[in-house]
Write a structure and sequence with these properties.
The protein is α/β, with parallel strands linked by helices. It has a single domain, classed as Oxidized Rhodanese, domain 1. Helix content is 44%, strand content 14%. It is built from 6 helices and 5 strands. The protein has a 5-stranded parallel β-sheet. Strand 2 (41-45), helix 3 (49-54) and strand 3 form a beta-alpha-beta unit.
Length: 138
């Protein structure tokens, strides 16, 4: 009985790891390096308009799509999908905290043909960005 319980825990751990591994993330430090190096990126910012105007990464595309739960919100991401289709550049999704909204944006972009290897999410979102001197605002 105990070995069955241990086996079940192992299987649950493997499944949890597989689910957690569905998304690609980029650390703020790696993102800063890419920006500093002038890397060509499509930065898809899904923050609501008020938050976007208060703080955003340079070169971000304003979508105002957060929380990316409705068809209308998903359609706001289409301009970023079109830019990917034109350029093929890597895509970084930025949201308030890098969690649910970012994952829904990632999933939507993937459903529109943007491949996994081109998609990443900024870890901890804009709230976790440790380089305030780089942020733009209106």
């Amino acid at each position: 009985m105990r070995s069955l319980f241990i086996c079940m825990l192992l299987v649950l751990g493997i499944v949890s790891s597989a689910v957690a591994g569905e998304y690609n993330f980029i650390s703020p430090e790696d993102m800063k390096q890419k920006i500093d190096a002038g890397s060509e990126l499509i930065i898809v910012d899904i923050q609501v308009e008020k938050e976007y105007k208060q703080h955003r990464l340079p070169g971000s595309i304003a979508t105002y799509a957060y929380p990316v739960k409705t068809e209308k919100e998903r359609a706001m991401i289409d301009k970023a999908v079109e830019q990917f289709n034109t350029t093929g550049q890597d895509v970084v999704v930025v949201c308030p905290r890098g969690k649910g909204g970012a994952k829904r944006c990632y999933d939507y972009m993937k459903s529109q043909g943007v491949p996994d290897e081109k998609l990443t999410i900024l870890e901890k979102g804009i709230a976790g960005w440790p380089f305030p001197e780089m942020l733009e605002k209106d």
